[in-house]
Amino acid sequence: MKITTAHGGGGKLMTELIGSVFLRHFKNSTLDALEDAAVLSVPAGKIAFTTDSFVVTPLFFAGGDIGRLAVCGTVNDLLCRGAVPKYLSAGFILEEGLDLETLERAVRSMKAAADEAGVTIVTGDTKVIEGKGGLYINTAGIGIVEDGVDVSAKNLRPNDAILVSGSMGNHHAAILSSRMHIQNHIESDCAPLNEMVFALLDSGVRVHALRDITRGGLASVLNELAQSSNVCIELLPGYTPADFQVQGFCDILGLDPYYMGNEGKLCVAVDGADQEKALRVLKAARYGSGAALAGTVREGTSSVLIKTRSGATRVLEALAGEGLPRIC
Length: 328
Prior knowledge:
Elements: H1 12-26, H2 29-32, E1 46-54, E2 60-61, E3 64-65, H3 66-79, E4 84-95, H4 100-117, E5 120-129, E6 135-145, E7 161-164, H5 170-180, H6 194-202, E8 207-212, H7 217-229, E9 232-235, H8 244-253, E10 266-270, H9 275-284, E11 292-298, E12 303-307, E13 313-315
Parallel strand pairs: 4-5, 9-12
Antiparallel strand pairs: 1-6, 2-3, 4-6, 7-10, 7-11, 8-10, 9-11, 12-13
Helix pairs in contact: 1-4, 3-4, 6-9
C-alpha cells in the first residue's frame, strides 16, 4: 500500500493510518486520547525542552534508521543538559508514494528506541505532501533537570579533562558508505546515551559539560565549547579520533575524522582530578567501551589546538562550508 494525499486529509484514511500504525505501535493512555494537546504531569523545578528534524538519506542504513535516529537525537540533546528525558512528540511529513511498510518499519524502530531510552511518545502530527516517497520526522522532547544539576557549555575551566565516549565518524561513514554503495563493516553508532550520562552524574564525578558529537564532528563541538567558556582546549599528541575501519575509509576518500558526525558519542568535560574515575564510568557503561582521554583545558583565548608528536602545534578549526548533508 502506498501513502496518498488522502492519508493527510483529516478524513477516514487518515484516521485509519493513525490507528493502524501510530497508535498501534506508540500506544499509551496520553496518546490514545487523541486530544489536540497532551496534558503531562511534571515535578516542580526546571525542565529541558528541545526539538530536532530528521531528513536522513537513505532511510535505513547499517546500524540504524530514521526512526531510531529521531528518538536518539532528541533524547541525547536532553541528556547533554543533564536532564532526565521523559516525553517526546513525533511529527511525520510523508511524501506521496511512500510504502506503508516503510513507514511502519520506521515507527517500530522509534518505539524500540523510545523504550530503550525510557521516554514516552505522547503527541504527534501527520502531513502528506507531493513527492517521490520520502519520509521526514520531527521530534521534540521534554526532560526533567533535577536540583543541583548544572551541565553547560559555559562551565569549562582550566585543568578540566576532555573525554570522548568512543571513536569518531562511524555514523557519518555508514551513511556515506550506503550512498556510495561501498561494501564494508562500518555501522552507525546511533544510540540513546541515558545509561552513560546517568552513571556519570550519579558517580560523584564533577561533570562540567556534555555534548553529543553530531554534525560538524568533534572539531566543531570542541570549538563551540571553547568559545562558550572562553578557554583553550589542547588535544593530546597520541589521541586518535577514529577506529581503524573509519580511519581507512577516511584515508581512501580524503576525509578528516575530526569533522565526521556521530549519533551516539559524547564529549565530556570533567574536573581534571576526576578524569580516571570518569573514564572508568564511561567504559563500564553501555556504548562507552571505547572511551578515551582526548585532551585538557587550559587558560587562553577560545581555540582548539593539537600537539603533534613532533612537538608542533596545529589549530583545529570548526567545520567550514558544507559537510556531508543529511546525516540526520
